[in-house]
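Something for you to look into today, if you have time. Could you write out one complete protein record for me, on any chain you like? Leave the record below and I will have a look.
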Amino acid sequence: MSHPGTITFVDHAKGTTADRPVAEVPEGIAWYGTGAARVPVTRVEASDRGGTLEITRYGADGALLDVTVGGR
């Protein structure tokens, strides 16, 4: 499977959206999964949830891939 070529990064707290070429993004961010089950990540959203940071990654078809929650 190939990557569509760009990833959209959305920071809801700052109100910003930026597209970056996949070549400029670490492989661990650009792809989800391992081995043959790897799928391209095409959108990453960051949200501040009352003192916690929530990072959500989506696939090429808009499918939710994973959500990571951490403290600030």
User: Anything to note?
Assistant: The chain has a mean pLDDT of 92. Strands lie at 6-11, 16-21, 31-32, 39-48, 52-59, 64-71.
